[in-house]
């Protein structure tokens, strides 16, 4: 009986490794992105290591200001290099993106890495037609005749769910609604068949019904294309729906990383638990919504020694934290930073912990 | 587009009418009239004689009757006669309008030739020595009074070095229509144009620099970079096109401003244009000439505004009218 169970678990692990952990597309090693503020550099992304595999959706979640977007922009090399210092390695197709010259980096971005931006109202050039903007990456990465480019653009428009592509092709961004523009932005990201897609809060700026449409589209596209996806969001619903693995970021660090079911069923780090506990539930009427006390400290005021989440869980005794918090593999593929998770409990008299996975 | 231009042109008619009314009434409200101007300092002119002349020229009629007479003729291209030069205003202006338009046009072109590249360099490479140099030049050109700078140019290049003529618009000995005539015109234009242009650049440079710095941080520029567009193309295709919009929109106003604003330049370089005529006419209360000139300047402004609207609707799809 026990042997049988162990065998099944082994099979399950093998199966998962087969499905989820194919060839890695992107390996981030100890990435640190520091911004210059009044002459000093402060790390917004502070030693992040992360691997994205083929056909895998890795979600990065966290509050505003915890370094999610800074991480995405670091991968793409979109920070202003005069005020930003990048350290560590971003290995993609056996080269470190951080050490590439701008010209070489331009051969990668837009072609092998596509990026979907947060705000569709501002992410398109107001003076160029939709068709032109989708064709632009093809100009630099593909050798196609203009007729072929146009045909490809039409296909892309249809793939992102735009029905009257003939008309949209010649229109300008201001003539389109927010949801349509986000579809166009997705089409731009997909224009040259990227192997890695970075979606930086793709639904944050949209209203709820459009959010659902865009998420459905992303899910559908994810099934079609075999690329790895980094999905940056603070919407845990989106994470549950789309992600294979989840990395929880706090104050520039990854504090917990696990497969999506594992993370929702068995969250360990106090921050992850607090986040999940903050989801409003319609299963029962709660008197109060759970809130995490305080805010993410700004990168200038961040105390970089000890557990960074400690100030926001003040009731946890100091000796529970590690002096130099490390990632611990508590289960296969489930990593947690610091030791404070072991005895963590929410304080009495406050809204208690509930089952996170309502469905 | 044609419809838009047509409609925009039609709107000009009531604008011009209103302008003419205001100009006429304001000119009437000036102290004195053509008669006091013409006989200023003449001890032999008696009050009776002046009154007689006023009656003769209809200057004692109510203002609306005078306006009716004036506008009726003006529509037919007759702005009356100058009291001072004793010749039709149209003939008087004919020779000068061309000179002023030429001066304004060249000043504008040179201004843009200097200002646009400098604005782009300063905006693209902010906080470099080049940017600092350009911004410094900008402060100087903004702070330097036009008449001081013009006099300095005149003193240095005409008087001391003798490279350029001291005044006029063309050498009178040269026959019209020949190559030498054109060369002589250019020689006479050079100093007034350069003086005007070097000081007029600050607006364009400042606008362009600020707009580029602003546009650099826009999201769509990030999108362009994420597409793998080379840096140079990010500027030419995305940032500059957007940043040049306000400059293009301002073109019409610039033209209007230059035609009206060349009074000092024309006086200092004794350049026979509208500005110089304007000053002498006001001094002499040459009422017909002043009203005609103000009308011309006003019309230039109205046309300039229309031009700006049309240019903007061509370059910016957001305000393009279907």
Automatic annotation (TrEMBL), chain B:
Keyword Transmembrane part of the UniProt annotation: yes
UniProt keyword terms in alphabetical order: Cell membrane, Membrane, Transmembrane, Transmembrane helix, Transport
Localization terms from the record: Cell membrane
GO cellular component assignments: plasma membrane
Membrane topology classification: Multi-pass membrane protein
The ABC transmembrane type-1 domain, residue ranges: 97-308
Highest taxon in the source lineage: Bacteria
GO biological process: transmembrane transport
Record-annotated membrane-spanning stretches: 101-125, 137-164, 189-208, 244-269, 289-315
CDD domains (alphabetical): TM_PBP2
A Pfam match: BPD_transp_1
Entry similarity comment: Belongs to the binding-protein-dependent transport system permease family.
Protein name according to UniProt: Peptide/nickel transport system permease protein
Organism of provenance: Sporosarcina limicola
């Amino acid at each position: 009986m026990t042997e049988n169970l162990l065998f099944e678990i082994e099979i399950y692990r093998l199966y998962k490794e087969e499905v989820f952990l194919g060839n890695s597309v992107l390996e981030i090693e100890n990435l640190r992105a520091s911004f210059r503020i009044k002459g000093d550099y402060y790390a917004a992304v502070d030693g992040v290591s992360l691997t994205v595999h083929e056909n895998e959706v890795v979600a990065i979640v966290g509050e505003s200001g915890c370094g999610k977007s800074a991480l995405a922009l670091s991968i793409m090399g979109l920070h202003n290099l005069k005020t930003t210092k990048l350290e560590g390695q971003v290995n993609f197709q056996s080269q470190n993106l951080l050490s590439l010259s701008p010209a070489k980096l331009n051969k990668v971005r837009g072609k092998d890495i596509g990026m979907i931006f947060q705000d569709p109202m501002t992410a398109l050039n107001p003076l160029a037609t939709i068709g032109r903007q989708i064709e632009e990456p093809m100009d630099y990465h593909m050798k196609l005749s203009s007729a072929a480019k146009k045909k490809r653009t039409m296909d892309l428009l249809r793939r992102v769910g735009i029905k009257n592509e003939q008309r949209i092709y010649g229109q300008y961004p201001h003539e389109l609604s927010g949801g349509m523009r986000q579809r166009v932005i997705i089409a731009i990201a997909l224009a040259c068949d990227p192997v890695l897609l970075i979606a930086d809060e793709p639904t944050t700026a949209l209203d709820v019904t459009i959010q659902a449409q865009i998420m459905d589209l992303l899910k559908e596209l994810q099934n079609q294309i075999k690329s790895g996806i980094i999905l940056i969001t603070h919407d845990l619903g989106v994470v549950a729906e789309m992600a294979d693995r989840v990395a929880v970021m706090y104050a520039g660090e990854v504090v917990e990383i696990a497969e999506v079911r594992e993370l929702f069923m068995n969250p360990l780090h106090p921050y992850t638990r607090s986040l999940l506990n903050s989801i409003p539930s319609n299963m029962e009427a709660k008197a109060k919504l759970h809130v995490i006390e305080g805010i993410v400290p700004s990168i200038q005021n961040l105390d970089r020694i000890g557990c960074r989440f400690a100030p926001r869980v003040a009731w946890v005794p100091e000796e529970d934290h590690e002096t130099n918090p490390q990632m611990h593999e508590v289960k296969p593929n489930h990593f947690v930073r610091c030791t404070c998770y072991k005895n963590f409990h929410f304080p009495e008299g406050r809204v208690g912990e509930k089952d996170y996975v309502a469905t | 587009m044609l419809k838009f231009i047509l409609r925009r042109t039609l709107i000009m008619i009531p604008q011009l009418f209103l302008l003419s009314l205001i100009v006429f009434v304001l000119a009437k409200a000036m102290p004195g009239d053509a008669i006091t101007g013409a006989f200023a300092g003449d001890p032999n002119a008696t009050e009776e004689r002046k009154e007689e002349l006023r009656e003769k020229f209809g200057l004692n009629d109510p203002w609306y009757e005078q306006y009716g007479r004036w506008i009726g003729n003006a529509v037919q291209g007759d702005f009356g006669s100058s009291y001072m030069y004793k010749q039709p205003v149209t003939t008087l202006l004919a020779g000068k309008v061309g000179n002023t338009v030429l001066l304004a046009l060249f000043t504008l072109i040179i201004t843009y030739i200097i200002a646009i590249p400098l604005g782009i360099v300063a905006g693209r490479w902010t906080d470099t020595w080049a940017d600092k140099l350009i911004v410094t030049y900008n402060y100087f050109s903004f702070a330097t009074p036009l008449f001081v700078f013009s006099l300095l140019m005149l003193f240095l290049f005409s008087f001391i070095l003798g490279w350029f003529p001291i005044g006029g618009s063309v050498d009178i000995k040269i026959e019209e229509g020949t190559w030498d005539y054109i060369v002589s015109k250019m020689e006479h234009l050079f100093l007034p144009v350069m003086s005007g242009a070097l000081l007029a650049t600050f607006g364009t440079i400042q606008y362009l620099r600020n707009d580029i710095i602003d546009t650099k941080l826009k999201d769509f520029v990030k999108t362009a970079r994420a597409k793998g567009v080379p840096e140079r193309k990010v500027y030419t295709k995305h940032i500059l096109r957007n940043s040049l919009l306000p400059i293009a929109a301002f073109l019409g106003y610039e033209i209007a401003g230059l035609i009206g604003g060349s009074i000092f330049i024309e006086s200092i370089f004794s350049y026979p244009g509208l500005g110089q005529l304007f000053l002498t006419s006001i001094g002499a209360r040459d009422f017909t000439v002043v009203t005609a000139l103000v009308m011309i300047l006003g019309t230039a402004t109205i046309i300039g505004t229309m031009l700006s609207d049309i240019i903007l609707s061509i370059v910016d799809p957001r305000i393009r009218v279907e």
